[in-house]
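re: ur msg from earlier - yeah i can do the calcium ion complex, just paste it... oh wait u already did. ok heres what im feeding in:
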Amino acid sequence: AKEKGRNTFQLYTSALNERAVRRMTMEGELRKALERGDIQPWFQPRVGLRNGSVVGSEALARWIKPDGTVISPGEFIPLAEETGLILPLGEQILEQACRRVRAFQDAGFPEQYVSVNLSPRQFRQKDLVGMVERVLQRTGFDSRLLELEITESSLVQDIDQTMATLRRLREMGLAVAIDDFGTGYSSLAYLKHFPLGALKIDQSFIRGIPTDPSDIAITTTIISMAQSLNLKVIAEGVETLQQLNFILGLRCDEYQGYYFSKPLPPEAYLELLRQRKL
Ligand code: C2E
Ligand code: CA
Ligand code: CA
Ligand code: CA
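and the outut:
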């Protein structure tokens, strides 16, 4: 039994080592990818429910390996967040997103806006507002066409700092949206104190529509209360016509989801805008 115990221990430590080694390798690769500019934003269309037009997009990070393999953010954003690489990475994605969308604007779609994700660590970074300001300057991007998405956990960490940051972003003309709304701990009543622009209903609630009564109740409540707080409401993860019809009936403002389109590389996104203009 003693022998067996030792073997198990060895197995355990070598598995740990393997994980640590993989992590370090991945961290090194992530650094290189960052230097080479291999991490780029793709764009998922956001559709206005009033007239069905593509009003803007959400920028979603993709790691494009030299051999063309595309890696999802779920596989590298958490590591970037842990290591702090998310700060230079986030700035690069924001800058790329502004450059690309500026090009869409110049190509005949002057009202196209873009929404960019900020992780909690990014939202807490020392000079977030200054960083955003400099990116806008470098890219010549109109701040009124930029939205930042933060999660409820970012909101509730340090209320005073959150309030100050949100106020300064608002003064610059930017909109801030609460992402994955309904999955965190903040209440709608509490939200009214923050200068926010929009709420995004988390896809887990949309998934249950039209069959799950509690998802229907939650979605309906979020939309009606957001309206009374004068916040724009976006439904994400819309995959079926039934889901689309349901939120249309509730007068949600915009939606995004596979039903309309997956996230697209910039060239394909511009092509989609052009096709729909014809
Ligand atoms: P998120 O911000 O909640 O983004 C929505 C995710 O849902 C995206 O996954 C999108 O591709 C996916 N999605 C959109 N429509 C549908 C649908 O109809 N059905 C389903 N099943 N999924 C849909 P993605 O691109 O893999 O991103 C995952 C997460 O990674 C994002 O979740 C966000 O939290 C994070 N992320 C992505 N890009 C960035 C970034 O540039 N910076 C930061 N900090 N985080 C990012
Ligand atoms: Ca998001
Ligand atoms: Ca989301
Ligand atoms: Ca999410």
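cool cool. The mean pLDDT is 93. ping me if u need the other ligands too
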